Backbone:
């Protein structure tokens, strides 16, 4: 496919119409509706039904340059119709979204619009504050400021823990709030999430690296690391069998 950019003073609908015709030259042109929505994140979608192409784009992109909207159109329509997307469009869009001002805008959106479920640190059998402070003393000289701590809504076995920088919160799977859950596994998951507090992501030209070289080196300092990872595999396998 030949990569072309023809912008002039096209409206978003005209951009999407042109990209649609490029990707599907023989198909009938649907009615195209492009709207901006107040999403929590950089969510966008394109849906074709009953001869109408509905496009909804995060309002953080309202006013974005035409080449960015063109790139987004190629990406979403490529996914919709299973067409290859030229690397130029993927790279252009990632570079734009990875700009410092865009990252700041998205961070503000998550803080203002996002709703974060926080159960509190005290579970039925375990208090996450005690786990955090114990690890803080042992591995961080007690210098880490404690973020918000909470348990997940369900006994998630896919995501055992995550750090949400928008709400400065560490959430741990309820699978560990069990007297039979291995303490070593819980400590490793909490330790991993605590590392995000002192090793933030790196933002390169077009990529965001969450687990940096420094992060991985620090993680290797966790005692019995291999044993902890093996315990987590067994714990998740057991949960799968019991579900």
Residues:
């Amino acid at each position: 496919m030949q990569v072309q950019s023809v912008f002039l003073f096209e409206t978003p609908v005209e951009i999407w119409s042109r990209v649609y015709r490029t990707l599907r030259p023989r198909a009938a042109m649907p009615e195209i509706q492009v709207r901006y929505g107040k999403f929590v994140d950089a969510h966008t979608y394109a849906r074709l039904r009953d001869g109408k192409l509905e496009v909804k784009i995060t309002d953080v992109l309202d006013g974005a340059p035409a080449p960015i909207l063109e790139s987004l159109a190629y990406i979403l329509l490529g996914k919709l119709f299973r067409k290859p997307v030229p690397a130029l469009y993927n790279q252009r869009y990632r570079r734009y979204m990875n700009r410092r001002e865009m990252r700041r805008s998205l961070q503000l959106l998550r803080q203002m619009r996002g709703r974060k479920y926080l159960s509190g640190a005290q579970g039925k059998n375990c208090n996450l504050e005690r786990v955090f402070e114990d690890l803080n003393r042992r591995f961080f000289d007690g210098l880490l400021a404690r973020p918000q701590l909470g348990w997940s809504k369900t006994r998630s076995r896919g995501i055992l823990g995550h750090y949400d920088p928008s709400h400065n919160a560490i959430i741990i799977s309820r699978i560990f709030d069990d007297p039979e859950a291995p303490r070593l596994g819980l400590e490793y998951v909490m330790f991993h999430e605590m590392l995000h507090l002192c090793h933030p992501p790196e933002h390169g030209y077009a990529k965001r690296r969450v687990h940096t070289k420094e992060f991985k080196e620090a993680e290797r300092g966790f005692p019995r690391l291999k044993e902890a990872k093996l315990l987590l595999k067994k714990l998740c396998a057991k949960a799968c069998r019991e579900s």
Notes: Confidence is low (pLDDT under 50) at residues 1-5. The chain has two domains: 12-113, 128-242.
